[in-house]
């Protein structure tokens, strides 16, 4: 059975995709195709290049201060932590606050695969044409520019240019791109990490928070409408509270808050596998 996997965008909340991938590895499930938007495309690219979910977690954890870390652990991570801080240091180029080139080059520094064709699993990366408002599905040629385009959140990251087109974050047009794998797989799993809960807050937000929150509201509305037309076989939606798109200092909290959704995914996968086994016994 061909499995299609769609990984949605959501900034740091997209790190919740990592325990999802670990769960698939635990069940011996390998997707036949992956579609990703924004940070979901970045995580998808790491996985499609041949890394396991556990390897991706270990790679990311080297650049974070975790709650159980001792001073010895932190000192051992010093070089990696400095790279992480440098990658996300504020820069103000024309068209965006933060340049993605350094971040992506850093993230992919140990990966030799630079094109879509070299990946072990076919990958679809979603971006949006800034001037025509068209959705663009990228699946060929250079990988890095496509990822830059897919995660170029308007007003936050600088747009990317591919083939003469100005491209921005794919979440503008398709936050969880499961529709692009429905016809290319027998069973589809979609992961939406865009839902953010900020319970009890009523203060006036700042300018950047206003942009990012409005962005999330529009994305949620679009997904709701798409789900009315056609749904994936499994839809996973971790509820991440009080973690904004760029709160990379709260990455460990993302893993913790994703745990209930992971437990639910395990139950769904067990039910699907049991159903397949029952059907095989009857035949």
From TrEMBL:
PROSITE patterns to which the protein is assigned, alphabetical: PNPLA
Residue ranges of domain PNPLA in the record:
5-182
Q: Where would I look for the motif DGA/G in this sequence?
A: 169-171
Q: Which GO terms describe its molecular function?
A: hydrolase activity
Record-level GO BP terms: lipid catabolic process
Quote the InterPro entries the UniProt record gives.
Acyl_Trfase/lysoPLipase (IPR016035), NTE (IPR050301), PNPLA_dom (IPR002641)
Alphabetically ordered keywords of this record: Hydrolase, Lipid degradation, Lipid metabolism
Q: Which residues form the signal peptide?
A: none
Gene3D superfamilies with a match to the protein in the record: Cytosolic phospholipase A2 catalytic domain
Q: Which residues form a coiled coil?
A: none
Active site feature: 38 (nucleophile), 169 (proton acceptor)
- Motif GXSXG: which residue numbers? 36-40
Q: What is this protein called?
A: NTE family protein
